[in-house]
Amino acid sequence: MSRYRGLVSHLSKRQPCHHRWLSNGSAHIDNSTGAANDSTVAPSQVLRYALSGDPETHTTTLRKTTRSKINDDLALILAKRKLDRRDPHGRLISLPGGARVPTELQNVSDLQELKLWFEQFIVAGFSPMSELDVSLKDALVRCEKSSSSLEILSVLTTVISRHKDTDVSIPKSVIDAGLYYAVQSFSVPAFRYHLASYRGKLDVRTTKELTQGLLRTLRTVRFADPGYDTRPILELVADTTGPGSTFLTVAQFGEGTYAPFIELLCELGASKAHEVMWDKLVEQIVEIQRSSKILTSAMVDDAYRSVVIFFKFGMTDYAMACMDFMSKTVTDMSPSLDLATELAAFLNENGLEVPAMVEEPIQKALSQALEQQDSASTENTDLGNDMADFSTVRSLLARINDNGTSVSASKIADLIDALNDCAGLAIPLFIESFENYDIEYAWSPQWIPGVSDSSRISFSLHDSQTLGLLRAQIASRGIIVHSDRSRNLVQLGHLVRREFYSGASQESTPWTKTGYLVVFDRLSAEYLIIYMGEDIAIIDPEYRAHPEQSPVTGYEQHSFIGPLSHVAMPTSVQDLDRDISGVITPVKNAASRYVLDLDPGVNLQP
Questions:
Q1: In sequence order, which ranges of 144-230 are alpha helices (DSSP H)?
Q2: pLDDT one-digit tens code per residue, 528-546
Q3: Among 141, 241, 235, which residue's Cα sits nearest to residue 189?
Q4: Could you name the domain of life of the organism this protein comes from (predicted)?
């Protein structure tokens, strides 16, 4: 039997429940100039190398080395360290031609490296718990730049399965991550599997993250398919009659988690579970009042936010009963201004009396606003062609906030009218400073209806006018993943820039486009900046590709803004010269690039 066949036989007889250790530098036998002397590989790569001479996971029709060379290499490896010998430092075997694999989780940059990292440590029987707790979440976020949630979930599921097969304790951080990516991929079987793997209770922070993830993905799915059947997910979230675990049975609640979970239950169509959650919230409020603990404003807001949710879903009588309880039980604390305003709007709409506890923060805010109005002077600023009152910006933002999340085509049309009213303005957003010059970035409000012949919106207004709604989706291995971190957007115009040079003249260049669009997320009600690059031709009839002889090579992603970022819109004239770091917040789990097309608008109504 040849040596490489002997190695295959040896590996097949290994008992996976034992702690195995593989060594690195001592087994390296390729001294050629091109060899990576610090390269390391996992056990599976040893087997691949023995079979093909190629330690990588891809297939190839050409062997990298001869059979004789493979035999010699493996003979030296086995002579230097046996595969079943434990190394207390967890060092790894190194093979010729193997790409270097990070030995620290904080250095993992993509899913392939994460697979090999897990093979090296977790599957070998060594679980660096502290490193997993600290670095796993960030490593997974880096993997999201180029991989879908389903691909990441596949790796995590494999790791958990291997632990189960070997009867080794599964690290909690790995199970939490499995649940998160099962939620983000909206996979019922995966969600069920990872719930079944969980032992004990989720912490409050993880409960909140999973609830928000379910809400976000559910809304995205139903936005594209209003008739989506939510019953299978509801069963896994709150059906306590079945034998298996549910999200409700493993979740742990604290301030800020009750209202989102109640909202999730209502959106899933629960008939009674939302009332069970309200009772849990009431029980905690009463318990805090009876003890020496202090009832926080966050807990009070949790309760009033739940009341708003009940109103939203048409449960008027139940909402009134819950609000009456809060008014009588918590007599010294009112809801926050935003909640009080929203709650008062529902009550007025239904012809119901607004309680004093709800009215108080509204009246206080109105009094403060009147005082400021009396003492303030008119705020003017240069927004483009002429001097404009900043109230123009306030009005534009208010109309976007009021109509941007609507599924009514007429309300989207009102938003479009607001953009047209401000066409030609340049609203300063932030400044980026350098040694000899500054770059000012501004939002140029503009309705861009979308003109691509290959990608037209299906819903139209007033003959041929389209709404110009956008859909941003991630693509993994060339395949679009429809619900995974996708965004439904209203485009609001271009992000433009100009340079200011130092000196007395303060010369500046003309405004130029950047390849970025300012957009409004129709689900999360967030202002975003998204990179389109040359794909801007999909929606911009004025776009012309740069000729080859042009000194301008084209658009590039900004190193800080990246592919997708939150943008804090100005609230006053004082906000028009802010530094970029105070305005832009990159979206943490953004893909490296988005595929954008025109939203078909399947859920739009007149």
A1: 149-165, 172-184, 188-197, 204-224
A2: 999 987 667 666 656 655 5
A3: 235
A4: Eukaryota
279-303 pLDDT per residue, tens: 999 999 999 999 888 899 999 999 9
Q: Are 111 and 152 in contact (CB under 8 A)?
A: yes
d(CA 470, CA 184): 21
Distance of CA 499 to the CA centre of its chain: 32
Which two tokens mark 248?
């409700």
Q: What is the pTM of this model?
A: 0.76
Q: At how many degrees (to 10) do helices 43-52 and 3-12 cross? A: 150
Tokens of 62: 């050409």
Torsion angle of alpha carbons 4, 10, 13, 18, nearest 10°? -130
- The percentage of residues in the chain with a pLDDT greater than 90, rounded to a whole number, is 40
Nearest to 280 by CA among 252, 316, 318, 315: 252
Nearest CA among 177, 181, 168 for reference residue 127: 168
Quote the longest CA-to-CA distance of the chain. 95
Q: How many CA atoms lie within 13 A of 44 on its CB side?
A: 13
Can you tell me the distance from the alpha carbon of 116 to that of 108, in angstroms, rounded to the nearest whole number? 10
Q: Enumerate the domain spans of the chain.
A: 3-80, 200-374, 380-598
- What b/e sequence results for 274-309 when a residue is b if at least 16 CB atoms lie within 10 Å of its CB, and e otherwise? bbebbeebbebbeeeeeeeeebeeebbbbbbbbbbb
Q: Which of 143-147, 433-437, 459-463 has the lowest mean pLDDT?
A: 459-463
Residue whose token pair is 């995590």: 156
Question: What mean pLDDT do residues 89-105 have?
Answer: 55
pLDDT category of residue 304 using cuts at 50, 70 and 90:
very high
Residue 452 · residue 537 · CB < 8 Å? yes
Residues whose CB is less than 8 angstroms from the CB of residue 233 and which lie 6 or more positions away in sequence, other chains included:
186, 188, 191, 214, 218, 268
pLDDT of residue 102: 66
pLDDT tens digits, 317-339? 999 999 999 999 998 899 999 99
Count how many Cα atoms sit within 13 Å of the Cα of residue 337 in the half-sphere of its side chain.
Answer: 8
Q: In the 8-state DSSP scheme, what is residue 471? A: E
> 216 is written with which tokens?
């976000």
Helix (H) or strand (E) segment spanning residue 358: helix 356-375
Query: What pLDDT score was predicted for residue 127?
Result: 59
User: How far apart are alpha carbons 447 and 404 in whole angstroms?
Assistant: 13
Asked if residue 93 lies in contact with residue 84, where contact means CB atoms within 8 angstroms, the answer is no
Across 373-382, 416-425, 455-464, 564-573, least confident range: 455-464
Place of tokens 């299978």: 232
Work out whether strand 564-567 and strand 512-521 pair parallel, antiparallel, or are unpaired.
unpaired
